[in-house]
Each structure stands twice: as structure tokens, then as C-alpha cells.
Amino acid sequence: MPDQLPLPPLTAVRAFEAAARFGSFTRAAEELGMTQAAVSYQIKQLEDRAGVPLFRRQPRGVQLTPDGAQLAARAGEALEILREAFAELRQTTEDTLVISVIAAFAASVLGPRLWQFQAENPDIATRIDINQKPVNLEAGEASVAIRIGDGNWEGMRADHLMRPEITPMISPAYIERHGPLTCLEDLLTAPRVVAGHPAWDRWFEAAGLTPPCTKNLRDKTMGSQIFEVQAAKAGQGVTLLTPTYYRRELANGELIQPFDIVVESGRPVWLVYAERRRKSPAIRAFRKWLLAEMQTLVVAG
């Protein structure tokens, strides 16, 4: 058997991995319960052993060198494998699968279905963290995230979930208050929730209509479809909503989609997780379940 290079001390590897993840010796020290000087010393030991600098020291924090970035990815993955090995010895997975998710997806897709995942995976505890802003998955702020974007995030893996299609919807309360929408042209004068939404112009153009002028409208937004759908159900106006989110409401008559025309409202929705945690049993189980659920949901539409 060929001679093997001796491994560096695990303490030094842990200090390096944490500093690389945070971009800070101070924050690494806080996480590991060490002093900043101790973290610096451990990383210096690792650099001496490697024979190359792993960080560039800067006035505010540190930055990985190309050699450091290469080692950081492998070190993080190696530590994750160790964590999973010890978890398997305890016959458990991670303590909690934290799912960071945008509000509309949480309320309309994940919330009503997550019990199925929990029933199929009773050993995996789950927690939903509703957050419109991206969380730091590398730093462990969440296990996985449901994000809107182009699918390209450094150090991340992303699985496509759905295209963000959107179409006008109304409710029985709207019809009672304003009357039915019998033709496309009725929408030109109908009251609209968030009338300045940029997708309205795309929808009118797809319908072959000239969009009404919104120049003098004040910019109004509700921040999420979970609020806009409530306005629609209350009959306040015609609302642009995503049909995939509201299959149940459309089926039971709470919402009405008066026209078949749908347009894309923005960038796709993705399931995202850290590259170095791709082999996590809990993440793999959740990924497999969610992709199957989304396939069923999209096909049903």
C-alpha cells in the first residue's frame, strides 16, 4: 500500500471550514467556542502544512485564495460526511430539516402537503421558515430553500420546481359586487388589485389588447400573493394569481379564472441546497418527495 500523507488535525480543519464559510475568523471563533487568535493559529498551521496561503487577510474579514476555495469545498463536504456518519450511528438524521420558503409557496403548496412527507419520514423533524429574502445555506441558516431566480447560485445545487405563470382571477364576491367578466375587454375597465403590477401589461398584450394607462396610479403592492388572494376572495378586484398555487380554490369555486390566457410573471421557482450537503439523507429524502409532488401538481394543471 503506498504511503499516505498524514491528515492535518481535525481542529485545524474545523477552524478553516468555519472561517471559509463565514469569511471571518471572529465569527468562526464564536461558532467553535474558540478565541479569534486560536482560529488564526489553527489556520496558520494548516497553511504551513499545505505550503500555500489559504486566505487573504483584509482590513474587514478574510477572503479565500483560489487554493483556499478549492480546499474549502472539499473540507466542508468531508465534515458533512462525518456528521452524517455519526448521525447514522445514532440511528437518526439531522436534528431538524429547516425549509426556508417564500410565503405564497409555503401557504399554497408546501403547507397543505408537508404532512405527507412527515408521515413517510417520521424520523426527520421539519420546520418551515417563511422568508422572502435568501438565507445563507452555507452557514446553516436553513437546510434547503425554495427560491425564485435563474437557478445559478455559487456553491449551491438547484432543482427546477415550476414556472411562475400568472392569470387574472376573481371570486363570487367580485361578481356580486361588480358583475361578471363576459369578454376580454371587460378587464380594461374592471377594478384590479395591484393595478400597477408589471405582468398586467404582458397579459393584456397576450390577449391582443392595448394595456390601459397606469401612469397616474400610485405604486401599490401587497408583497405576496397570500395577501392578494385574500383581496380577490373579498371581491375587491381582479387579481393576478398563479393557477398552480390555487388548484383547490379554483376547483371548489372560491376563485374563478375567467379566461384561459396565462403569462409568465418572472423567474422560475427552485429547490436549493448547499453542494456540500447534497448527500444529506434528510435533504435527499425531501428533494425526492418534493420533485414528485411538483410533477403531480403541474401535470394536474
If you had to describe this structure to a student in words, what would you say it looks like?
There is one protein chain. With 301 residues, the chain is α+β, with helices and mostly antiparallel strands. The strands form three sheets. It has a five-stranded mixed β-sheet with strand order 4-3-5-10-6, with helices on one face. A three-stranded antiparallel β-sheet has the order 8-7-9. It has a two-stranded antiparallel ribbon with strand order 1-2. Helices cover 43% and strands 15% of the residues. The protein has ten helices and ten strands. The relative contact order is 0.14. This is LysR family transcriptional regulator. It comes from Parasedimentitalea maritima. Residues 8-65 form the HTH lysR-type domain.
List keywords for this structure.
301 residues; 43% helix; single chain; elongated
Write the layout of secondary structure elements.
Blueprint: H1 10-22, H2 25-32, H3 36-50, E1 55-57, E2 62-64, H4 66-89, E3 97-101, H5 103-120, E4 126-130, E5 144-148, E6 156-162, E7 165-169, H6 172-178, H7 198-206, H8 225-233, E8 239-241, H9 247-252, E9 263-264, E10 269-274, H10 281-300
Parallel strand pairs: 3-4, 3-5
Antiparallel strand pairs: 1-2, 5-10, 6-10, 7-8, 7-9
Helix pairs in contact: 1-2, 1-3, 1-4, 2-3
